[in-house]
Model the fold of this input.
Amino acid sequence: MNDIAADPSHPRYKSLLLRHLLEQAAEKGMLAASALIAHGRGEAFDYLLGEQTTPSALIATQQAAARLMSAKRPVISLNGNVVALAGREMLLVANALGCPVEINIFYRTPERMTALLNHLEDIKQELNIDVEILGANPDARIPGLEGPRANCTNKGIFSSDVILVPLEDGDRCEALVAMGKFVIVVDLNPLSRSAIMGNLTIVDELTRFAVNLFAAIGEDYELQDIDNDALLSDAHAQIATNATKR
Ligand code: ATP
Ligand code: MG
Done:
């Protein structure tokens, strides 16, 4: 790790740490080349949002916990960035819910799949938990999507009723909603297609969300009707406020 990323007093410590996690994941072959670009887009929006969880995003996270807890067949979909940045918390949440996780990557190669599976297995061993990791052998397809991006497993994503898909693509998110699932999205960009397509969008940084979600699992939050447009409007308003403050 470089000196700055090792120094917690550095004002950009957290951001540098996340970049470092992604660098390490890239070295292990877990990421597609575009992963760092996607992260950079997220960082830009996090700056605009003030680099902290907004009250609205926290409420949305608590609602995500309530939806996942009341689901019949919850599942957590993981891509490379999610495994690299929040694999540990996502496995802890899946363990608490007793649900599987499914690796669902845009650019699928056997090498990437193996690198991601190995990383998750290492975390499982370290935490001494037993969470089913799906995705290595897809046997179903998400209707309305072309090519390998439609691949999923029957046991996981295909038959799920509530799905958490952090950092998902807009069209895949839309296809999951069209299947009748309740789709929970995490995306720092409230203008992205993913954010707009989801049933419940948490506009927050993934690692902050993951910690808050794990804390909320097991709590007794009442299920509310979700007005996702209102959640996105809250994020727009936060960005406008921050932008005019200076
Ligand atoms: P669209 O959803 O409009 O189709 P996209 O999905 O193609 O856009 P990408 O750059 O591929 O856009 O996706 C990355 C998305 O993930 C961005 O919207 C970015 O804000 C978000 N993102 C990246 N890193 C994080 C993170 N750590 N936490 C939360 N969101 C993030
Ligand atoms: Mg997107």
Summary: The chain has a mean pLDDT of 94. The radius of gyration is 17 Å.
